[in-house]
Amino acid sequence: MAEFTPQPSCADDVDHNNLTVKQASQRIHDLLSPISGWQKVSLRQALGQVLHQSVVSPRQVPPYDNSAMDGYAFRSDDIKKAPFSLKNVGVAFAGKPYQGQVEAGQCVRIMTGAKIPDDCDTVVMQEQIEAHEQTITLHTDVTAGQNVRLAGEDIDCGDTVLPAGRRITAADLGLLASLGIAEVVTYRPLRVAFFSTGDELCGLGENLGDGQIYDSNRYTLFGMLSQLNIDVIDMGVVPDNKAALRIALQQASADADVIISSGGVSVGDADYVKDILAELGQVNFWKIAMRPGRPLAFGQIDEAMFFGLPGNPVSVMVTFYQFVQPALKRLAGETDTGPIIVEVPCDNAIKKRAGRFEFQRGILFRNNEGQLRVSTTGAQGSGILRSMSMANCFILLDENCDGLSAGSLVNVQPFAGLV
């Protein structure tokens, strides 16, 4: 399980916090440590997982001096002022080295990637020579050692090629394969249980009753969690019932490293949620100076971390990406790299009051001149899930911003690499 430094229980901390986004993020970060579990997996199974141990190269890459292009290999001692000629004595292919000696005044036809003959140290491009039946003539000046890739110039034996905490990419798989490494040690995937709360929620395929809506939050949560290579446990919809919620939380804390709920964390809403959380664990209810997503619950139930997210669909996604996702990455052992932020002009005016940090949904695009710009998706209500579907970025408006005119520069957090 993950390690957690306790805070006061929710009974001692309800409604007394009014944190900035930065403060809330830092509190969560400082209270969490990576899980201890690890596993040894094959290379193909390692994609998307986080390295528990650094990978140290057992060999050089490339393993021998080789040609960077098709041409002719020869001794640098034979370099003269152009033009000069050399005798061609053989051919070196990739995977089939030239086995003979190359003496003074001689050369070997060589292909890209082929091993440089032991007596040679320089390659001239085939386009820079004039070939005859048994000789070549060089008409351009040549530099000693040119067009040769030296053994170990990419990776030397003993180099750390991938550090612990790195989430393995497709390029990493190729790098590891080039070193002959068939297995790596990774953190085991996190186990995350999640559910929605509320009598008004229906599952897909059910008939909506009067005052009911379909539960969308579990589907967005499932999608966001699945992109992190996490073992997800969908616990469905938990009704507004003390006994049902207690059973769900107890079951989730026994099965998972992290519990995520949506709904029931606003002040005055379903007070029994706070009572049960206080009974079962150490949970803080925070008010965060942000929009959307002001209420957030964070803490521990038995050995599992707990995140209580708001019920509005956009609020769920914003709080997940800004608080839960970084926390899950930290728990999974991944090194924190922080989000990518770019500053671009905004095409439309934005209305905003100072006091809260806003995450407005935007569309980042290139105009006809090829310049990056952004526009909002339109209405920014916390229940307008379409705004997230249309968007490809968050427009970040800090607490001091009190509105912007069209053309103003804004900070943008692209979804690429985030979602």
UniProtKB/TrEMBL annotation:
Broad class of enzyme this protein falls into: transferase
GO biological process, alphabetically ordered: Mo-molybdopterin cofactor biosynthetic process
EC numbers for this chain: 2.10.1.1
Pfam families xrefs: MoCF_biosynth, MoeA_C, MoeA_N
Tagged with keyword Transmembrane: no
Cofactor names: Mg(2+)
GO cellular component, one term: cytosol
Family: Belongs to the MoeA family.
Protein name as annotated: Molybdopterin molybdenumtransferase
Source organism of this protein record: Methylophaga sulfidovorans
